[in-house]
Transposase
Amino acid sequence: MRKFKKHTPEQIVVRLEKASKLSEAGKTNAEICRELQISEATLSRWRREYGTMSRAAARELKTLRKENDRLKRLLAEAELKKAAYKDLAEGKF
């Protein structure tokens, strides 16, 4: 079974820029995908998600996603502590 690669948003934007240059040169989607070594479904998904994004916006998206994950973990920990304190206050040991 083939191992999946994870591409950063910056790498995706760079590949999409290259794909747009290739399509302007008259290449088909199949030829573009062969050159970028990705499937047509992946290219379509990337165009839908990152199509108009610049490299700076991709970097910002990456940092925002990391920050969002960190905040979600902090919120989950706070909710656990709150539930534990509530159980303790009610006398459930």
